[in-house]
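When time allows, look over one protein, given below as sequence and tokens. The question is which stretches look regular and which look disordered:
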Amino acid sequence: MNVNTNNLVSITEANQNFSRVARLVDENGAAVILKNNVPRYLIVDFEQAEQEQLATNEDVLSISKRLIAKNKQAYEVLAK
């Protein structure tokens, strides 16, 4: 994941000025909150979070095919 340095906010600033964090998310799609100068929390727009959780049918199908091919022998033994 690439992080835009303009979207970094300290936890202290986020606590004192959450409206700024919300504005960053509205403008840039995400904000990263730092705790002890280390990225700790990611705030994203709710719609974006929902979209990232949904896997397309094509993704599920390709993963299924890969797992079946990888474990073909085990599936054949279980089928007996």
Summary: The chain has a mean pLDDT of 85. The chain has two domains: 1-44, 55-80. The two ends are 44 Å apart (CA to CA). Residues 55-80 form one domain.
